[in-house]
């Protein structure tokens, strides 16, 4: 009897996923493979020597929700300065699945897919402990892997974080020291964040951090409210460009702009949800009833965890390219929603016309930017798109330190970075 209900539940779910337009096998996508990549243009073949700094420095900048293509919405002279004299992923940086903020920021700094670094969504419940992870959770047991700040201090170098998901979590010899680690507060003006980073270059040379992060919550905050095509986004992008200009000018004033490796990325893109592509779980009765208490999240990540005793096997069909299964924290039923779809329990007539992200990383709308500028990056070079798990190795390679094992390709850095002379 119990067994029978399991079987029918499973097939009903399969039926359900098909009926509601959820594809569990999306179109395959070709990921860049380091061996087949070719530089489109390069004038130099070795890294440029440092002029003023004693050691390599990396500033990792994130502009949240900076969808690939936003850089053409409006003149962005400062970002384009980095692009023209740096190395750019010509068709954007590919986020990891789910294309959400916390999983992606933590993949960028660990080189691990979310299943391996443990931050499988922005919000989830641990099925073993019953504890809930939220964006405020700082207990180290949630955050697996070794983030860059931890790797850097492990090698006796200094790291500084001006916001980044996970940066306040004490791990290994990283204890988020007040001098070099800021507790998240979205109200801090962007100018102040940049001024603090610039201030690090005024310190005695052995106190200048080798690795720094800066995080800006725009244009994601506008994107959620108004969608990717609203003039407010254009304004937010222009503002980010102005802030990048402030950083460049400040570095130039200190004579270190050409010595610093700047890596500018976003975490994911954004897609409009104005087409009213709504799916209501309750409308699917009488075929199947999914109680609200089983649903961990609705959209863009439909995650359902039935209670003990019901064990659907859907997860087996989930595309391997998404690397989203090897963690007990991941719900056993994941609905991969088509672009722009929204799922809710029932129709509360809450039509929204705004923006969302979190969908399959194969969608172009989920892509973001990658720009590298500085001594280790060739000027004016374009490289094909790649996944953000490659960035960890890139940073450890620039800093000449041994990173932890991760999901990036070891040879990838050799391709994107100029070799040391
Ligand atoms: C690019 O770098 C060259 C020096 O190699 C410099 O003369 C030029 O002004 C730079 N261009 C931009 C747009 O920053
Ligand atoms: C939701 O309910 C409203 C009001 O009853 C209706 O106008 C709308 O079409 C419904 N939406 C969908 C997607 O069924
Ligand atoms: C990702 O990296 C972790 C840590 O090295 C490893 O255990 C795991 O097998 C890797 N997964 C994939 C898909 O490469
Ligand atoms: Zn984000």
UniProtKB/TrEMBL annotation:
Keyword Glycoprotein: no
A GO term for molecular function: hydrolase activity
This protein's UniProt keywords: Membrane, Transmembrane, Transmembrane helix
InterPro entries in UniProt: Alkaline_phosphatase_core_sf (IPR017850), Phosphodiest/P_Trfase (IPR002591)
Keyword Endoplasmic reticulum: no
GO cellular component: vacuole
Record field: transmembrane: 12-31
Pfam families for this protein: Phosphodiest (PF01663)
Gene3D superfamilies the record matches: 3.30.1360.180, Alkaline Phosphatase, subunit A
UniProt cross-references to CDD domains, sorted A to Z: Enpp
This protein's name: Uncharacterized protein
Species per Swiss-Prot/TrEMBL record: Coptis chinensis
């Amino acid at each position: 009897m119990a067994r029978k209900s399991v079987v029918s539940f499973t097939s009903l779910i399969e039926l359900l996923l098909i009926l509601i337009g959820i594809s569990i096998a999306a179109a395959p996508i070709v990921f860049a493979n380091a061996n087949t990549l070719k530089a489109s243009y390069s004038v130099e073949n070795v890294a440029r020597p440092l002029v003023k700094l004693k050691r390599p420095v990396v500033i990792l900048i994130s502009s949240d929700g900076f969808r690939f293509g936003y850089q053409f919405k409006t003149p962005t002279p400062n970002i384009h300065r980095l692009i023209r004299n740096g190395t750019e992923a010509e068709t954007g940086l590919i986020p990891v699945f789910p294309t959400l903020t916390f999983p992606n920021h933590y993949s960028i700094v660990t080189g691990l897919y979310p299943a391996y670094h443990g931050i499988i969504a922005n919000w989830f419940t641990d099925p073993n402990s019953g504890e809930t992870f939220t964006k405020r959770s700082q207990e180290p047991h949630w955050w697996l892997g070794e983030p860059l700040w931890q790797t850097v201090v492990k090698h006796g170098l200094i790291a500084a974080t001006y916001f980044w998901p996970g940066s306040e979590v004490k791990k290994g010899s990283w204890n988020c020291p007040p001098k070099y680690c800021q507790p998240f507060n979205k109200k801090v003006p962007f100018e102040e964040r940049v001024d603090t980073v610039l201030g690090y270059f005024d310190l005695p040379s052995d106190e200048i951090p080798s690795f720094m992060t800066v995080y800006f919550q725009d244009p994601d905050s506008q994107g959620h409210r108004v969608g990717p095509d609203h003039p407010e986004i254009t304004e937010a992008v222009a503002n980010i460009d102005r802030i990048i200009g402030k950083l460049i000018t400040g570095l130039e004033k200190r004579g270190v702009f050409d010595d610093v490796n700047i890596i500018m990325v976003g975490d994911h893109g954004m897609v409009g949800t104005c087409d009213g592509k709504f799916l209501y779980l309750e409308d699917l009765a009488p075929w199947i009833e999914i109680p609200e208490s089983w649903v961990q999240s609705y959209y863009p990540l439909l995650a359902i965890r039935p209670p003990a005793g019901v064990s659907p096997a859907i997860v087996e069909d989930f595309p391997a390219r998404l690397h989203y299964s090897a963690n007990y924290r991941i719900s056993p039923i994941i609905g991969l929603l088509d672009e722009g779809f929204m799922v809710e329990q029932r129709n509360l007539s809450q039509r929204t016309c705004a923006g969302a992200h979190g969908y399959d990383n194969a969608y172009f709308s989920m892509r973001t930017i990658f720009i590298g500028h500085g001594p280790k990056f060739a000027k004016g070079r374009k490289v094909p798109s790649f996944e953000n798990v490659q960035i960890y190795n890139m940073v450890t390679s620039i800093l000449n330190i041994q990173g932890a094992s991760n999901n990036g390709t070891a040879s990838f850095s050799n391709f994107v970075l100029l070799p040391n002379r």
